[in-house]
Amino acid sequence: MAKSRTRSTGKLVSWLTFDPKPMPYFAPEKCIRHPGQTDAQWAWQLEASKRHARMYSVALANFQVVATAYGYHKTCNKPECRRKKRCVGRRPAMPEDDYPRPFFPICSTIDMAERVIEGVREMCEIMRSGYVPMFAPDGSLHPGEEMVEDET
Q: Given CB 3.0 to 4.6 Å as the disulfide criterion, which of 31, 47, 84, 86 pairs with 68?
């Protein structure tokens, strides 16, 4: 993490440049109401399902941001990624996977996927420290200006 705190000599680009628009969408899981549930319990279960789907959307978007910043879309085997000039992939859910939903889009090697996972961790660490993550031309992450909190 120490090397990400140094300033790059090249032009830094904010992670928001690579932010997918629109965000990936995951439908909330279909919930079954149990006979003994109160209305409040049922409402909480539905809200938790929506929050869980939103968590997947944000995680996939972060993964796509880092994969795009690293330039993996340029050699992707999905034509849509190359055409849109950014990672838009979504790996389909497989029955042998532990993930209940389609998730990380890396269509290439395991090494590339591991690099992206490490990049997402580093990007989140920079955000937690209160700075905007910035990508250098070589793909390294650096803290940019301090984040402004919206108090409205």
A: 86
Give residue-wise pLDDT tens across range 29-55: 888 888 899 999 999 999 999 998 888
127-149 pLDDT, tens per residue? 888 888 888 887 788 888 776 66
CA distance 54 to 145: 27
Look at residue 143 and give its three-state secondary structure.
Answer: strand
CA atoms within 13 A on the CB side of 67: 32
The whole model's pTM is what?
A: 0.74
Give the separation between CA 24 and CA 59, rounded to whole angstroms. 9
Report the C-alpha gap between 132 and 144 in whole angstroms. Answer: 5
Four-residue CA torsion sign, 54, 115, 89, 127: positive
